[in-house]
Amino acid sequence: MGAPIVSLDEVLQEARGFGNAVAAAVVATDSHVLDVALLAAQQGLIAPILIGRPDEVKSACAIHACQYPVLAAQTPEQAALLGVQEVKQGRAKMLIKGHIHTSEFLHPILAELRHAERLSHVFVGQISGYPKLLYITDAAINIAPDLVTKVGIVNNAVKLARAMGIECPKVAAISAIETINTAIPSTLDAACLAKMAGRGQIEHVILDGPLALDDAISAEASQIKGINSSVAGDVDILLMPDLVSGNALYKAITYFAGARFAGIVLGASVPVVLTSRADTMETHLASIALARVAHERMHQPSGKDFR
After folding, report:
1. Which among 39, 121, 134, 192 has most CB atoms closer than 10 A?
2. What is the mean pLDDT of the chain?
3. Which alpha helices (H) appear in the chain, and where do they start and end?
4. Residues 136/123, Cβ–Cβ less than 8 Å
5. Burial 102-118 (b: 16+ CB within 10 A, else e)
């Protein structure tokens, strides 16, 4: 295992070395989606296939003066299914969410392309003042995960982090406080996860919890509170208690602190990019690059099983 990747620029550089992959952009009917596809193609990351209502896609393409293959789908549901079929037939190697609701985009992926126990999402962030990439999960797919679901989310994120060069990722199971309180279910889940990791039920990980966010990212805060944790101040993965808190954290760091992020789906058999249309072009491009790098590294014949 090589040195850990510590920046999104490293991710982009590595992804360019793989050459462009045929990527199905599901519901590519607005200019922002086409901007992303055009830039990613220019960067040598993808060769786009555009799926959606042909009149809308071609009209948008005309504005951008671009010519990509167009596959006709009259509804978002049809577009998502067609994208999955392109993958199953070997004509596409990657899926990118366009102007479509997340649930509609994921439904056929979950039914046809899932290869892990759970589909989950991770945001990988480069944050000023933090010495390494920070993984935030899950902020886009699993709304209110129970304990079993959180185990799957952790496993997915750990496999990604290990593929990115972190031999034994440090995971903080986040809650509002550091002690178990039956009135706050996330503290119970966090304690169970920590015990499971300690007994080897969750492998290749150092996991502590419950931890408040300040404990996870600041060794000083943890020491002041009298918490003895090998995760505190050196965390790799923040396991958030629910989608709302994870999504709010990601957006707060992005907008208030100017962090750079990439967001991908984990647990599918092909790279899947899931971002918001409001995300910056830089985020979209980094997400495509991360999806490529993660998939290649997880499936390379290196002797390590990241799947």
Report:
1. 121
2. 92
3. 8-16, 31-42, 54-64, 76-88, 102-112, 147-163, 185-198, 213-217, 219-224, 243-257, 281-298
4. yes
5. eebbbebbbeebeeeeb
Average pLDDT over residues 253-270: 95
Class level of CATH domain 116-267: alpha beta
C-alpha distances (whole Å) from 196 to each of 185, 199, 268 are 17, 5, 25
Q: Which helix (H) or strand (E) holds 21?
A: strand 21-26
**CA-derived radius of gyration, the chain:** 19
Q: What angle separates helix 31-42 from helix 281-298, to the nearest 10 degrees?
A: 50
Q: Give pLDDT, residue 2.
A: 64
- Residues 6+ positions from 214 with CB-CB distance below 8 Å: 221, 222
Write the pLDDT tens digit of every residue in 211-242. Answer: 999 999 998 998 999 998 999 999 999 999 99
Hey, which residues does 263 pair with through a beta bridge?
Answer: 123
Tokens of 25: 């952009």
Eight-class DSSP state of 212: -
Nearest to 188 by CA among 203, 171, 196: 196
**What single-letter DSSP state applies at residue 6?**
-
Grouping H, G, I as helix, E, B as strand and the rest as coil, residue 246 is: helix
Residue 307 has pLDDT above 50, yes or no: no
CA angle (297 as vertex; 292, 303 as ends), nearest 5: 160
* Domain spans in the chain, listed from the N-terminal domain onward: 116-267
Which of 133, 139, 190, 130 has its CA nearest to residue 161?
A: 133
CB contact at 8 A, 122 and 138: yes
188 pLDDT higher than 90? yes
**Which range is least confidently modeled, 35-39, 96-100, 126-130, 151-155?**
35-39
Given 3-state DSSP classes, what are the helix, strand and coil percentages for the chain, each rounded to the nearest 5? Answer: 45, 20, 40
